[in-house]
Structures are given as C-alpha cells and as structure tokens.
Design a protein that fits this description.
heterodimer, A: 16-stranded antiparallel beta barrel, B: alpha/beta
Chain lengths: ~450, ~325
C-alpha cells in the first residue's frame, strides 16, 4: 500500500514538476514570478496531501466496512451460509435428500413390497449466536408423518467441555452416531435396532488432545430401542455415557478408534403405551415385535423396570480401506398380564469398505479426488462395501412376550454394495442384503430376505 | 423465641465471613467521543485511586472513543457501556429512545443538565495566520481550505456547523437563507471530511492539510500545547456556541453488571473540585466557579450562544439540519 502511494505521488509530482521547471525558468527572472511559483508549489503540495489523506480515509472506511461485512458462502461441505465479519454469528442452511428404491426378489411371503420412496428429506438450519452458542434444527419430511429429528443448542465453552440440550442422538451406537449421509450402506445394520435414534436430554461432552480421548455423558427422557423420542412415559430417566479413544491420532495408526458406550434407566410403560420397540431387517421389514393386540390390549407386553444397554465399538481407517465394528446388548424388563421377565437381546456387525478410486476412507465420506465432470473427465469416487451382522433375541421372550410364529429368534445378514460418490454432495448407492432367520414363521424358519436397495442422495 | 434466636444465629454466622471481605473488583466501560481520550485517561486514574481509598474496591475503567453519533449507535447495538460521556445530548437521547437502556429524563439526574464541563468551538490556524482568518466569515472566502469533520458521524462537527450557522444568523440582515448560503460556501472549502473530531485534527495538524481547523476549544488548545508547539495560533471567533457534552449512567448495563453504584460515583466525581481541576487541565471549561477562575487565562472570551436559544434544542436541530435529507445533505454533496 505504501509503495503504491509513493508511486502515485511520484507520478503526480512528475506531472506537476516537469511543467513547473519550465515555469520556474521563466519566473526566476522576476520577484513576483518567484512568489507566484511558490504559491503554485504550495497549492500542489496541498493537493497531494489531500489526495493522500482521502486515500487514507477511504482505506479506513474500507477496513471498518470489512469489520461489519456479512459474508455469504455456498459449498457442498457447509451448505449455504451468512457469516458476520467477526465469525460470532452464523446462519447456515443445509440439508439432504434420499430417494430410495427397494426390491425384494425371491422373497414372496414375508418380504416387503417393491416400492420407491423418499427415505429422508431433511432441511437443516444451523445458527451460531455469539461466541459460544450454536443451534440446530432438522425436521424430516421423508416418512409418512413429518417429524423433528434434531432440535438442540450447544454451548461450546471449551473443546473439553461442551453442553448440549434438546433432542439429538444419545451417545450409544457407533453406526447410529454416523450421519445418515455417511453410512456405508443405505440402511444401518442390525445392531442399530438396539439403540435409540433420538432422545430429549442434556449432555456434557468434550475431547482432549485434539480427539485422542473423547467423552459424552447425558441424562435423557429414555426411549425404546430404535425410537425417535418424544414425550416421556414415566418420571424415571436414562443415563448414557460413552468414551471413545483414538490413541494414535497423530501417528500412522491415526484412523484407529475404539470405545465403550452404555446407558441405564427405568421405563414404566403400560399396555396402552408399551415403551417397547419393534426390530427391523436391513430391508426395513419387521423381524421382531412384542406381543400386542388391538382386541385385547390388556395383554400387551410393556416395559416395566430396568433398561440397560452396553456397546463396545470401534473402527479402523487406513488409506482407502475402512473397517467398522460394534456390538450392542440391550436388556429390558417387561411385563405381560402379571408376568415379568428380564430379556437380553444382542447384536453385532462388521463393515468393510474400500475406495477403488483411492480416496481416503473415514468416519465421514470423503470428497472425491476427481469429482464427476463430463468436460474434465472426472468420474467421482467408487466405493465397495460389505458387511455381516447378527441379531439374537432372548429365547426367554418366546412364546409369552413375543410370538415365535411371527417374530424371529435370530437374524443373520450379509450385504454387499457399491457407492458412487459423484461429488461430495451427490451419491448413488446400490446394495444387496441377504438375511436369514431362525424361527419367525408358523412352521420353522422365516423365509430369507433378499433386498436390493438403491439410493440417490443429495446433501449440502 | 426459638425461631428468632435461630435466625439471629444464622445472621451473625453469615456476617462473620463477610466482615473482613474486600469488595470484588469492578470494571467500567466509558464510551466517549473522540477528543476526550487524554481527559479520561487522567480522570480514570484519579477516580480509581479515590474509589479504592473510599470503598476498598478496585475499579478498572476501559475507554472507547469515536465519533459521538457512531458511539451512540454502538451502544444502541449492544456495546456494554456502563457510562456514556458523549459530545451532545441528542446522542444520549437516541440511546434512551432506541436502546431503552436509560430513562428519557436522564439529563435531570445530574447537575447542569448532566454536563459537568463545557467547551466551545474555535478556529485553529497555522502560525502567523497566513490567510488572515479573524472570524467565521473568512472561512467562506475563496482559496481558504477548511478542515472540519462530518456532521453525520461526529458530534463535534455538529457543534462546528451550528456555531457557523449561528454566527451567520447574527450578522446584519442575517436570515435562515443567508445562513444556509454562508454554510454552503464554507463546506465548499472543505477538502477532506473526516468521520470524527480527532481525525480532523490529524488531517490538519499531522498531515498539514488546510488553512483552518474548526475545532473543539480543548482540542485546539491541546494541539497548540502538545502536537505542534509554535506551529499554530488560536483564533477566537466573535460568536460561538456553548457546547455542553453530557454524561450518563447506562442503567440497564450497569444494573446487569452490578456496577450501578461505582458508575454513578464515577460521574459524580466529575463535579467535584478534583474532577473539575482535571477537566480544566485538559482545556474543558469547568462548571465550578472557583476552578473556572483559576483557569480563566487559558480560555479566550467569546460570546456564546446555546443550541436551545438559536436552534430550539437538539431534537429540532437534528431534524432540521442533520437528519437524512435535511439541510446538511442539501448543502454538502460529495463530488460537487
């Protein structure tokens, strides 16, 4: 800036001084001429000073305006945003949309109907208000009934100490904690049946040494497995906690992380509001439900006592390869017509993924090295995925609390798939899932489920 | 009886640890206008010592300076000022009206319309007064470069503008039309319009631009004393305006921060002999007759008119002259 100022001043002086030299030669011959010359020089000196000062003031004004400037941005990673100059205020509009196709080839008796559906349609509004507080609202218009999934505020006081209040994912299942836009398969695996989707509560969280050690600790209303929580059924609350360690965050094994999550609480349901879940196959068909009846609701099974969950979990990402595994055990005390039992269901899965196009695998989807572009010859990223998982229902659930003829005692599922990440914002996925069952049919085992799921996903 | 004894026991027990406690340190933010930096640096130091001696409480005072109107807008927008010490009452009225953080009658809460010191507007010229400037009328002469800040952003600039207008009105045959014509000519001679009074002083004194600076009296005297000894002369115009920079506690902020008492004491201290001395040392005209007499020699004798008597008060002056589309906008159009 100084250099520019000097150059412009010199240029101005050159324009001024050269004609003055000629004038000076003429003026030096008379005393009145030299006075006139001095006046002219003074006048020009003033003009230069004025110009310089005006530039200073313009620069000051520009700097002041920059301080107050609101910056609009648009990107696939962060959506659309408006940000104050000091970064303390931010309004961000994001969202994602998933349009699925589900086919059940060779599954005549218990498979779902082949259909096309809007799986998720979730606009997201996020705001940063002041230095410490964030807010997020995410409804979903993808199901039959619109519902709020996330509605919470965060108080980010330090990396080691943040507070979250509202409705959000309780810190339990690893795949559940992964965003729906980042999961390897179109649908989460069997263990996700045993953890809640969303609950209303208050959570303390933080991490140390840039994520080497992270913790979450919360109190929640308490909701059944797989449920998106709303009002509580009783005064009792659930407590959930999770610790997750990435011991080699800065080394060659930086993609290794493992942890333990658990929750405990009491649930007091009733025959009318049972507080109990229904479990699903990877094709999103019911595979286990507690006994209930619309004709004799008094015989409905309902939650009535302690509910605990425990989940060891971990992942390992190295180069293009990703591995994720989790185990969940969920214990529920249930009652039916004066009978009670403590039932224990368990599930596990292992997922592998590999980017054929060399992208670095991670808990979040990567940006393709060469985003899809017909003109530039970009193809996007191609990812192969595979998984195996099992869900075991407590044998003591049968036949009092669940019908052996309609609910399976065990499910084993394997799946393979291809994810084509056109860009960071656009993905196409096709999965094949094969699930076999123990029990679950009037005579013997339920017919295996073959599900082909396709997904077109846009997110921003 | 048992209950009373128990209550007394609790009260006494609670009072024991409190008795020896020193009060928590307090921090005040004084949002002020441009030329008061040095005044309040000095004043804050003395007040802190006074308050510590009186109450045992440490008090740290932070200062914020800028164009008076701009500062008022910052307070309206949420700047957490415990006290405001601005250039004109209109700016604090705006805080009361738009910010709702102090009552509308704030000016009645302290003596002299909440104005502990006064000042006026004078002319500062280069040593020897090469352009022969003697009074306001000379500022409209061709070839005279006048430095004054922008009345849209600077309280001091409004005083300058009104002082010039007031002088023109009082000339033989003076009218609103002749005053407007005079002020129009004057602003035609302004090559640089700074945002605040301190910026205008920088333009004139440090950048060497212009023949005359229309300035706060305190700013002009300070410039002569410290910024350019032997380089400037003060010209006292025949008529000028009585500037009464007001002060006020911003009740809602002070209440929320628990600084009400110390903020009030801070402003009241301006009226004490010690506070008046400090003001006079920094070339503000003290309200105290005794202190004024002591410092009489440093202030030129000028016939002073008030905003109320010439312009019908600040609200009216603002609407007529400084509101968007009002007289100043018609008089001064950049680039023309």
């Amino acid at each position: 800036m100084i250099a520019v100022r000097w150059i412009s001043s010199l240029a101005l002086l050159r324009v001024v001084v050269v004609p003055l030299q000629a004038t000076a030669q003429q003026a030096s011959s008379s005393p009145t001429g030299s006075v006139s010359l001095e006046a002219q020089v003074n006048e020009l000196d003033q003009q230069i000073r004025i110009l310089q000062r005006l530039r200073e003031l313009a620069a000051d004004s520009a700097a002041a305006a920059a301080k107050e400037k609101v910056t609009p941005t648009a990107s696939a990673k962060d959506g659309f945003s408006l940000k104050s100059a000091d970064g303390k205020y931010l309004l961000r509009f994001r969202g994602y949309f998933q349009s699925d196709g589900r086919l059940f080839p060779g599954t005549e008796l218990t498979g779902g109907i082949d259909n096309l559906l809007i799986r998720r349609a979730r606009p997201i509004v996020e705001a940063t208000v002041g230095r410490y507080f964030d807010f997020r609202l995410m409804p979903d218009f993808g199901g039959t009934t619109p519902a709020i999934f996330d509605a919470y505020w965060d108080g980010k006081f330090a990396p080691q100490f943040t507070v979250r209040a509202g409705k959000f994912k309780p810190p339990l299942g690893l795949e559940r904690l992964q965003s729906a836009t980042d999961i390897s398969f179109a649908e989460r695996g069997l263990p996700t049946n045993l953890v809640p989707s969303r609950d209303i509560g208050l959570q303390l969280a933080g991490d140390f040494s840039e994520g080497v050690f992270a913790y979450q600790l919360g109190i929640f209303n308490g909701v059944p497995d797989l449920a998106n929580g709303g009002d509580d059924l009783s005064n009792a609350k659930d407590f959930a906690a999770r610790v997750f360690v990435q011991p080699f965050k800065r080394g060659s094994l930086q993609g290794l992380g493992f942890g333990l999550a658990g929750s405990t609480g009491f649930e007091r349901g009733s025959p009318a509001a049972t507080g109990l879940p229904t479990y699903r196959t990877p094709g999103q068909q019911s595979l286990f439900r507690y006994t209930s009846s619309t004709t004799t609701p008094a015989n409905n099974v309902f939650a009535n006592g302690e509910r605990t969950r425990l989940s060891p979990q971990g992942y390992f990402y190295t180069g293009a390869l990703g591995l994720l595994g989790e185990y969940v055990v969920s214990r529920n005390e249930v009652t039916q017509a004066g009978l009670s039992a403590k039932l224990e269901h368990a599930a596990w899965q292992a997922i592998g993924s590999f980017f054929l196009t060399g992208e670095k695998a991670g808990f979040r989807s990567p940006t393709p090295k060469r985003p899809f572009d017909l003109k530039e010859g970009g193809f996007g990223a191609l990812e192969l995925v595979g998984r195996y998982g099992e869900l075991s229902l407590d044998p003591a659930a049968f036949p009092v609390y669940a019908s052996a003829s309609s609910s399976a005692q065990k499910a084993k599922a394997w799946g393979v798939g291809v994810n084509w990440h056109f860009t960071r914002a656009v993905k196409f996925a096709v999965n094949y899932e094969h699930t076999t069952f123990t029990g679950g049919a009037a005579a013997g085992d339920r017919e295996p489920e073959n599900a082909v799921i396709t997904r077109f996903q846009t997110s921003f | 009886m048992k209950t009373h004894a128990f209550t007394l026991l609790i009260a006494v027990t609670a009072a024991i640890p409190l008795a020896g406690q020193t009060p928590k340190p307090a921090t005040l933010l004084n949002v002020s206008y441009d030329p008061t930096r040095e005044l309040y640096e000095d004043f804050n130091q003395q007040f802190s010592a006074y308050w510590k001696g009186k109450t045992g409480q440490e008090v740290k005072i932070r200062q914020s300076h800028g164009g008076s109107g701009k500062q008022a807008r910052s307070v309206i927008d949420g700047l957490q000022a415990d006290v405001v010490t601005l250039a004109l009452a209109y700016d604090i009225d705006q805080i009361a009206e738009k910010g709702g953080t102090l009552p509308a009658d704030w000016q009645k809460r302290l003596p002299n319309n909440s104005s502990p010191y006064t000042s006026t507007i004078v002319l500062l010229v280069r040593k020897g007064n090469p352009k022969g400037i003697r009074d306001w009328g000379d500022l409209a002469n061709p070839g005279v470069a006048v430095i004054t800040p922008n009345p849209k952003t600077s309280g001091g600039a409004r005083w300058n503008y009104l002082a010039a207008w007031g002088w023109a009105l009082r000339q033989p045959g003076g009218s609103e039309a002749s005053a407007m014509e005079f002020v129009r000519k004057l602003y035609k001679n302004v090559p640089v319009l700074d945002a605040g009074a301190r910026g205008a002083t920088t333009t004139f004194v440090e950048r060497g631009i212009g023949d005359v600076l229309i300035a706060w009296e305190n700013e002009a005297l300070l410039a002569i004393k410290e910024l350019g000894p032997g380089k400037f002369d003060l010209v006292a115009p025949s008529i000028s305006i009585l500037a009464e920079p007001p002060v006020a506690v911003v009740d809602k902020v002070a209440g929320k921060k628990g600084t009400r008492e110390v903020a009030q004491a801070y402003l009241e201290y301006l009226y004490t002999p010690a506070g008046q001395e400090i003001a006079a040392r920094h070339f503000y005209r003290p309200r105290s007759a005794a202190v004024a007499e002591k410092y009489a020699a440093q202030f030129p004798k000028i016939t002073l008119v008030t905003v109320d008597e010439v312009f019908g008060g600040w609200a009216k002056a603002h609407t007529t002259h400084f509101a968007d589309g009002a007289l100043f906008d018609r008089i001064y159009q950049p680039g023309r």
